[in-house]
Amino acid sequence: MLTYKKTLIVLALSLPGIVNADEFTKADLTQWENEFQTVVKQGRAAFTDPNLGSNGVVCAQCHPNAANTHPETYPKFQKQLGKVISLWEMVNWCLRNPLEGKPLAADDPKMTALVAYITSERKGVKLDAGKH
Amino acid sequence: MNNSRRDFLKQSGLLLAASTLPLSLVEIAFAKEEDNFSFAYISDAHIQQIKGTQFVRNWDRGLMRAVAEANLLDPKPDFVMFGGDLAQLGKPEEIDHGLEILSALNTKPRFVLGEHDFYLDMGEYWAKKVSEHHYSFDHKGVHFVVLNSILTYDDWNNKWSSPQERMAMMAGLDNPLGSPFMVGEAQRNWLKADLAKVDKKTPVVVFSHSPLQKIYKGWNFWTDDAEQVQALLKPFNKVTVIYGHVHQIQYNQIGNISFHSVMATAWPWPYPSTYAKAEQFLPKLTVEMNRADPFFERDATGWQLIDIATGNTAVHYQLAENKPRTVAFNPKTKRPEDSEYQQQRAVTQNHY
């Protein structure tokens, strides 16, 4: 009986704290979604930008709607490179080769945007790192 | 080299060439062997100007390889078809550069018009320098029709601020601001009149750029008035439609009409099924080709040998990094089937 009472008291004390920490307001969620969608839009713009590389070829030319990019399978062993890589490294491979351009830094805002767009087109697909 | 490989090479010089060639050879075979003939099919070169005399090397090489290897074909094809999208952005420079590469062919090509050749100047330069937009011809007992299937609504054509903007809008395959392709009423009337002169027992082969069937509207693997065109072809015993645009192997049978796509010399496309958000109608019959290896530029840009035995079609696809495939008309089931993979429904890889 005593234990039961103690538990109740502990719960009662901690409840307001939990509520304050975890409750995201609708305004928060809307803002974060908007921030994400803005970057996705920048990513789509880069994905179709003839000036991303040096020869006018755009990512979407071979990857309509970012199909066949498989973001959910990274990091994975890329047999042609002989090592496990993240998606941004494969994006850079495409920038260097079909687009004959310069690679981007992993944390370049343009790279973040490209990865955000590619990943958003695969929303809902099960994560499956390492898959081939 | 192992024995079977060596025997294979010994058997036929043509097959040796065929195992690597990124173009299509079409053979029309009849009951009487002396009536047989063949033609080659090259499509979707997408010659792309960077600036001045600089062009994207990758796409140039694809077309050059197809031309070089078409010239090795033995027996020599009666003619070569080019299936559309010679240019990437419809520029005269791109069309001229493409024609220059094609000029090395031993056999004069005939042309199908693609959207990338058209939407800069609505096909004016094409008509002047390359070919009529639609026409028909007869060759050794087969009636061939070339359609311009990439037309669209006038409202869409006229809504852009410049020809360059219109071309760019149509050039993006997945651009939601594009517009569905169609043959259009005027050309359907022309087709009706053209076919009225043809005996119903004559094999008919139709070349179009877009599929004259509906597969996935989002990427314009689609012709809006496909059913109306199919209806005009219905009275004929044997009809084959051969189309480009999709940069991948597709085949289908709708009533009396067999459909076959040809591959691109430039780059391959994923199947619409790989776009997780898309509802699409790839014919159930089609056994998909493998995913392309991006590290090998010419992978999944193959070519096809097509026999039209007794008016029906068999397509032999030559693939760079995979075993060759044959999709042949099966007279028992009355539809095209993959000779090796039709029953197991898969080549070796899953698409996802």
Describe the protein.
Chain A has a single domain, classed as Cytochrome c-like domain (Cytochrome Bc1 Complex, Chain D, domain 2, Orthogonal Bundle). In chain A, 52% of the residues lie in helices and 5% in strands. Chain A has helices at 2-22, 26-47, 59-62, 87-96, 109-120, and strands at residues 76-78, 83-85. Chain A has a two-stranded antiparallel sheet with strand order 1-2. In chain A, a hairpin with a 4-residue loop joins β1 and β2 (83-85). Chain A is globular, with a radius of gyration of 22 Å. Chain B is α/β, with parallel strands linked by helices and 352 residues long. Helices cover 24% and strands 22% of the residues of chain B. Chain B has helices spanning 3-11, 13-18, 57-70, 92-102, 115-118, 124-129, 154-157, 163-171, 185-196, 226-233, and strands at residues 24-28, 37-42, 49-51, 54-55, 79-82, 109-111, 135-139, 142-146, 204-208, 239-243, 251-254, 257-261, 303-309, 312-318, 325-330, 335-338. In chain B, α9 packs parallel to α10. Chain B starts with a helix and ends in a 14-residue tail after the last strand. Classes of the chains: A mainly alpha (132), B alpha/beta (352). The A-B interface holds A 48, 54-57, 60-65, 67-68, 70, 80, 93-94, 97-98, 100, 121-125, 131 and B 48-50, 56-58, 172-175, 218-219, 267-270, 272, 274-278, 291-295, 352.
